[in-house]
Amino acid sequence: MKIFRGFNHPGRESACAVTIGNFDGVHRGHQAMLALLSAEAAQRGVPTCVLTFEPHPRDYFAQTLGRPEIAPARIGTLRDKLSELERCGVDQTVVLPFNQTLASQSPQAFIDEVLVAGLGAKYVLVGDDFRFGTQRAGDYAMLDAAGQRQGFDVARMNSYEVHGLRVSSTHVRAALAEGRMQDAARLLGHPYTISGHVVHGRKLGRSLAESRQGAGDGFRTLNLRFNHWKPAASGIFAVLVHGLNERPLRGVANLGVRPSLDPTDVNGGRVLLETHCLDWPGAPGGEEAYGKIIRVELLHKLHDELKYDSLDALTAGIAKDCDDARAFFATIHTPIYTETRRQTTRDRI
């Protein structure tokens, strides 16, 4: 998949079949829409294109208005969104910066400058609740009328439902916020996953007391940054780690801001996914792991983040989490979760 930030880049196709949206989580509704887009693109002999935005428009307005509470929790990072779009067979993705220029653009200007001149759209597929342009003044009827005048086809897709529940990013966020990981997986079509480069942390895990399994270097962790201040999920999870070994590794992960640690640590209080593997595969997980891209599946929530008042209490808490994670894995058939997916995201993202 080709990725472009904006329109004016060599290598971008001059015509396409496009769908527009934030695609946070790339859930089963998104996947159904992308399958329809692919079929329509094939009939027209043009590539598929996803037009998406970064930051999320509601993030932009939350910052502009000074109202952080209206920003949506983020299901996935940009890396994971692009990886999922590629897995769905999208040919090219255009990431537009959502800024004042875009926020103030009239619906007709969006059609003229973005869809027609910018993308060369021959087919535009939108959801049943699609709105566009300043103050969300543009709707499907306006887009369809413009298509008839300006030479592109327009279609909309009705809501996608699973067992009577409309599949949406809102429902995925709710499931993750409430720790209903199986419900989130049903909406997403796969376990909730976060991927990224392993980064340096505070190295505190190496200095904690050895685990009851006798690991010689304490509770060392693989650290991934979640590049948004408001993740949809948070807490302690039983996880599977892909990318360090031929088979996925069982682990315990903390997703959040680590309230027991100094907020001025090396990661500056940012959201981290810190994963401790229950059975380390030898050398990986030491210095060799830094910079590697791993994928962590969050399968089961153990509890919310806790603030411990001492390192001894933190050590005991982690040890109990490890025991609880082992108990969880003993209750499931691990092969259900061991399907591997090709790592496709570009290192530059």
From TrEMBL:
Q: Which UniProt keywords apply?
A: ATP-binding, FAD, Flavoprotein, FMN, Kinase, Multifunctional enzyme, Nucleotide-binding, Nucleotidyltransferase, Transferase
Q: What class of enzyme is it?
A: transferase
Which Enzyme Commission number(s) are on file for it? 2.7.1.26, 2.7.7.2
**Superkingdom field:** Bacteria
Asked whether the keyword Magnesium is assigned, the reply is no
Question: Which InterPro entries does the protein's record reference?
Answer: FAD_synthase, Riboflavin_kinase, Riboflavin_kinase_bac, Riboflavin_kinase_bac/euk, Riboflavin_kinase_dom_sf, Rossmann-like_a/b/a_fold
Q: What reaction gets catalysed by this protein?
A: FMN + ATP + H(+) = FAD + diphosphate; riboflavin + ATP = FMN + ADP + H(+)
Molecular function as annotated in GO: ATP binding; FMN adenylyltransferase activity; riboflavin kinase activity
Pfam families (UniProt xref): FAD_syn, Flavokinase
Q: Which GO terms describe its biological process?
A: FAD biosynthetic process; FMN biosynthetic process; riboflavin biosynthetic process
Q: Which SUPFAM superfamilies is this protein grouped with?
A: Nucleotidylyl transferase, Riboflavin kinase-like
Q: What positions does the domain Riboflavin kinase occupy?
A: 187-330
The biological pathway it contributes to is: Cofactor biosynthesis; FAD biosynthesis; FAD from FMN: step 1/1; Cofactor biosynthesis; FMN biosynthesis; FMN from riboflavin (ATP route): step 1/1
Q: What does this protein do?
A: Catalyzes the phosphorylation of riboflavin to FMN followed by the adenylation of FMN to FAD.
Q: Which family does it belong to?
A: Belongs to the ribF family.
Q: Could you tell me what this protein is called?
A: Riboflavin biosynthesis protein
